[in-house]
Structure formats: structure tokens, C-alpha cells
Amino acid sequence: MILFLLVTGAFLIGSIPCGVLVARVQGIDLKKVGSGNIGATNVLRTTGKWPALLTLAGDMMKGVIPVAAVRYFVNDLAMEGVIGLSAILGHNFSVFLRFRGGKGVATSIGVLLVFSPKAALVTVIIWLAVLFFTRYSSLGAIVAFGALPFTVYGVDYGREKLTISLMMSALLMLRHADNIKRLIQGTEPKIGKRA
To answer: In the 8-state DSSP scheme, what is residue 39?
Structure first.
């Protein structure tokens, strides 16, 4: 029962559509502009830098808060991972958006910040490096999270951490299937391009 309540709570926290709420303050329906995605990249394209940063922070905290709460009250690594995955799934399939949502990048980073800070640091560095050289936010996420299981194995190995990192990586790849197709076709928009 406790696990069920924790998982449900994490899913509901993850479901909070920060980008949609931030854009709504600007009078914009985020689901109808740009890529239609609810994450910080689309907020940047449609509303600007500061709303995007606010969205990024909010989406990250959706991963940080549930995992940090489990660490504080339960202190069980496997449960931290399960709760983190639940928060990510909440973002990806928000109950407030009829089970539609975002890609889960920022929320996944938030989870990693508590679950495996060393892996989080390497993941962010890889993402930023790819973004800097290519200007593709999606490619940065794909490369960084594609490498996540190897990162965890190299800098913070543990059976539970490796298992959860594999699940996080697979989930993020699935959510970026359309981005991968557009990258191959050369139609993926670069960061900074206004919608």
C-alpha cells in the first residue's frame, strides 16, 4: 500500500505540465504551437528564454522531489528508482493532458540528480556538448541518455542503478522516435529557432 501511494504520488507530481502552465501565462497554448511538445525546448521556441528556464526548473523538480522524499523517509535505492520512473512516466503521460505529455528529459535529469549525481553530471555534460556542436537539443538528449547505462556502469555502478538507467534510456529513446526520424530526414529544428 505504501509503495502504491508513493508511485501514485510521484506519477501525479510528474504529471504537472509546467510548460503548459508557463506558456498559458503568456497567452499561448503550447500544445498548438511549435512542435506541440510541452517541454522547455518548445517553450524556448514559442515564448522565450526565461519561460523556458522556468519550465526546465519545474520539470527537473518533478524528478527531484519524489526521489528525494523516498531517500529521506524510506532510504531504499530500488524504491528510489521505481519512484523516479513513475515521475518520468507522469511527465510523459500526464493525467492532466489526457495521458499525453513530453519527452521526459528534464524530469529524468532531476531523477538522476538524486538517484545518481555523478551520472547526472556526465549526462548533462554530454547533452550540452552535443547541443553546443550541433544545435540539436533532441540529439543531445538521445546521445546523453543512450550513453546513460554506460555512464552509470563507469562512474556509479550498482545493480539497481544500472537496471533503472537502462529503463530510463529505453523510455527516452521511445519518446524520441519522431525526433530520430526527423534527424535522419534533416527536418529536425535546431535550438534557438523561433516557432
So the answer is: S
Q: Which amino acid is it at 188?
A: E
CB 140 within 8 A of CB 113: no
Helical segments of 74-104, H only: 77-92
Residue type, 49: K
Question: Domain limits of the chain?
Answer: 2-185
pLDDT digits (tens, 9 = 90+) for 14-35: 999 999 999 999 889 888 887 7
3 state DSSP class of 100: strand
CA distance 170 to 90: 16
User: What whole-number distance in Å separates Cα of residue 81 and Cα of residue 121?
Assistant: 17
CB 118 within 8 A of CB 155: yes
pTM for this predicted structure: 0.93
